[in-house]
Design goal:
This protein is mainly α and 348 residues long. The protein has 11 helices and 2 strands.
Length: 348
């Protein structure tokens, strides 16, 4: 049964055409109602713009101010770069593909786009995992932090992140490991002119999901849980010498921060990677609309990351406010000069 043929089963679909009317083996094109298309273009387009702008506001201060050249900020910079590139390179063509249900940019660009998508999403998640390791040493072993988490160590973390991400993304797609052993089925039943999807066999979907999500996700969950438990134990140990209300407030803030970090990450990416793993085992019966929806929910993590990982820092918030207020009356160079004072007192 093909989706979109019956309006009663897919009310959002108004009509079905071919992506290329004059080409044999063309994919079917599903047309959304005009109002729905406009709203979705506005929503997804705004999400892309917000992703780019939010991550630029993280990248610019870190690059510009030497006071912010710290190991933690290098990891945040790597995360913001991955999310920025996702907003620039992946989201715009994905908007067109998702809403027009056709791919008009050729097979080669389809492979590049798909590989870049997988690479950047994986890099974003791995960066989050390494940030959790950085936070673990900062909170749980503060005396060892400067010894264990050096610039050299962080650069190795970043190199591992981008190397693993590039291997997972580009090698899987260009070597066609994702369809290995299922080539005949893919080209006879899935591939068509105007389609650009990441079709994966059982091994590929399982291995890529484990590397890109499950290992980093379990690692992050374990690390943040340990950070929270140690922070609670430290707070209890100083209750006799510290105002109890202040301690309670600190505990609540730590709980809220860790809950937001893990809640956002798991909420955004869990639906996609669960479906991505089980889809080959249920004969690829996941509705395409549901799959695309879960992909965009995953992208949303890159939109929210600047707020979760950067806006928690007061000096970041102060820098952003100063840049925005200065830009209202001066150029960006003057804004940077104004902001210099607000970060010069930053303490690692």
């Amino acid at each position: 049964m093909e989706p979109g043929i019956s309006l009663s089963k897919a009310d959002i679909v108004e009509n079905i055409l071919l992506c290329f009317e004059s080409v044999n083996g063309s994919c079917k094109r599903s047309i959304f109602p005009p109002t729905t298309r406009i709203l979705l273009y506005l929503l997804l387009g705004s999400m892309s713009v917000l992703t780019v702008c939010g991550n630029l506001l993280v990248i610019i201060p870190i690059i510009h101010f030497k006071q912010l050249h710290t190991p933690t900020n290098y990891l945040i910079l790597s995360l913001a770069l991955a999310d920025l590139l996702l907003g620039v390179l992946v989201m715009p063509p994905s908007i067109v593909h998702s809403l027009e249900s056709c791919w008009y940019f050729g097979d080669l660009f389809c492979k590049i786009y798909t590989s870049t998508d997988v690479m950047l999403c994986t890099a974003s998640i791995l960066n989050l995992c390494f940030i959790s390791i950085d936070r673990y040493y900062a909170v749980c072993h503060p005396l060892l932090y400067r010894i264990k988490i050096t610039v050299h160590v962080v650069l190795i973390m970043i190199l591992v992140t981008w190397t693993v991400s590039a291997i997972v993304g580009f090698c899987m797609i260009f070597l066609e490991l994702n369809i290995w052993g299922m080539e005949d089925f893919y080209y006879e039943n899935v591939a068509c002119e105007g389609e650009c999807i990441l079709f994966q066999n059982k091994v590929s979907s399982t291995v890529s999901s484990v590397i890109s999500f499950y290992i980093p996700g379990v690692g992050m969950l374990s690390i943040y849980l340990k950070i929270f438990l140690i922070a609670q134990r430290q707070a209890r140990s100083i209750q006799g010498t510290t105002n109890q209300n202040s301690v309670g407030k600190s505990q609540r803030k730590a709980t809220k921060t860790l809950a937001i970090i893990m809640g956002v990450f798991l909420s955004c990416w869990t639906p996609f990677f669960v479906v991505n793993c089980i889809d080959p085992f249920i004969s690829y019966s996941t509705p395409p609309v549901l799959f695309v929806t879960f992909v965009w929910i995953g992208y949303l993590n890159s939109t929210i990351n600047p707020m979760v990982y950067a806006f928690f820092y007061s000096w970041f918030r102060r820098t952003f406010r100063m840049i925005i207020s200065a830009c209202g009356s001066t150029n960006l160079s003057d804004a940077f000069a104004v902001c210099f004072g607000c970060v010069s007192d930053y303490v690692v």
